[in-house]
């Protein structure tokens, strides 16, 4: 529920707190604890006050009677709508259903009573003699009004409890999602920084009420806080205002990842995609890269290299399509090998593009951070402000605007190469912050320049400059994290892609060559890895279903999925695992993590009924032998047959992941049943 229901569509004539002996005082014994409830009740109170405060000696003209009847009907209709919303809330919240329904019934009865007492249109007719109305029984209307306000207030307070429960549930459940965590962190950062900004901006407005730049400054802070609060509501309620959709475009790195997955699927299914679809995907990807080539701050060397690699990608896709068409009609070994070679070539080209794009964005960001280390322009703006130097203000405001545009453009490029959704969100936040804060600094500097002796105007400018400096510092951290992801030093989630330490019983590793796979071996390994990558995605989908993301089974499953993903990256010549020795280290840890998971699942099985327990133990009995078999393969020395060992290990890891997906799915269903 996004907001509490409103019992009245608008206010009537009169005030909530009338004066004089006949006025209706809002003292019905209610305890209005929140501003939101009070504000929601005001239109209803206003309408009721209009009814109560009519003068008894007023001539009962048709116009007067019609007006009173309209107000009474409006109250009754508004209460009817309110009750429907309240009943809907009750049906969705069984623990509060009885309380809400009782309050709704009372509100409905009170609304109908008010409607009956204000039905005065027929008073001039003979049959209306003896009819009880507001003119003959004002006390009845007052009692009904008090009952109505009391019941409506109770529904509003109960609705507030529902919202609070949603917020608590969201905090305990939803914010374990990394994307939502990043969005909430960005919104919280805005609110925290804007709190001090709002204080000084408001003080400046009070001190200089006729200063346009001061008011512009304060309104800018309000707007930013409103957007941040809307984001919080969106995260908590899991729905966007007015049905909006996420309009941020897909990043280049995400596009490359999706394109490569589609290309590599051709190894197993030649009819998976049409050539038109792949061509359209590549063109859309290259169009997004225009953010780099069109950027005024991209160096000539980087721009030329990106354009060269883009043209090469188009040529290699044409070659792939040509071989692909042949492979669909000729099922020969030679054509299959040629297809494999073209897939590897285009994958290599895309990897080179990623490196070039990352290098471009990272270099721009690093250069900017060095340039901004001393905050020369901010210091100059402060100085021109206290001197009242309007010419100096214009000069340095122009320089700050140029810096702002450059920072915004760089944040946009960093988002394309960030590599993870949480970092993409952080880049968007940085982009928005520089865009807004830059303009606010100029407004604050203008106010100080117009009032150079104003202490509060000076303090206000200092606060906005500190926010800018803080965002520059945050950008430095962001760049470091993006570089870590690109170099494989930081995983997409929880850091599990980091290289594990060597195990104690790894003497047999010394017999392995520490070299990287050669091109022939890499081509063979790539075929092994695709299925492993798909199984990793399946495992992550199963893990995402669990409400308790800290459950021990989930933690072990996530560890295994992340390590399997690093194995998959190795088969593509990417990621943190560079040599065969690195790979074997990772596989040792992978097998051990599997046995820990099996132990955790066995402990869980003791809580189940016999049939469910047997079903789960059957799955465990498939999984544990695979873990032991992988450990045996790892420990068995195979002189001069390294690739054979790697082939067996990855095949076994693939089998483990297939059973892991089944295990996680079954455990989730049984836990829900339990």
TrEMBL record:
<dbReference type="InterPro" id="IPR006077">
    <property type="entry name" value="Vinculin/catenin"/>
</dbReference>
<comment type="similarity">
    <text>Belongs to the vinculin/alpha-catenin family.</text>
</comment>
<feature type="region of interest" description="Disordered">
    <location>
        <begin position="1"/>
        <end position="20"/>
    </location>
</feature>
<feature type="compositionally biased region" description="Gly residues">
    <location>
        <begin position="8"/>
        <end position="17"/>
    </location>
</feature>
<dbReference type="GO" id="GO:0007155">
    <property type="term" value="P:cell adhesion"/>
</dbReference>
<dbReference type="InterPro" id="IPR036723">
    <property type="entry name" value="Alpha-catenin/vinculin-like_sf"/>
</dbReference>
<dbReference type="GO" id="GO:0051015">
    <property type="term" value="F:actin filament binding"/>
</dbReference>
<dbReference type="GO" id="GO:0005737">
    <property type="term" value="C:cytoplasm"/>
</dbReference>
<dbReference type="InterPro" id="IPR001033">
    <property type="entry name" value="Alpha_catenin"/>
</dbReference>
<keyword id="KW-0963">Cytoplasm</keyword>
<protein>
    <submittedName>
        <fullName>Catenin alpha like 1</fullName>
    </submittedName>
</protein>
<dbReference type="InterPro" id="IPR030045">
    <property type="entry name" value="CTNNAL1"/>
</dbReference>
<dbReference type="Pfam" id="PF01044">
    <property type="entry name" value="Vinculin"/>
</dbReference>
<dbReference type="GO" id="GO:0045296">
    <property type="term" value="F:cadherin binding"/>
</dbReference>
<dbReference type="GO" id="GO:0007266">
    <property type="term" value="P:Rho protein signal transduction"/>
</dbReference>
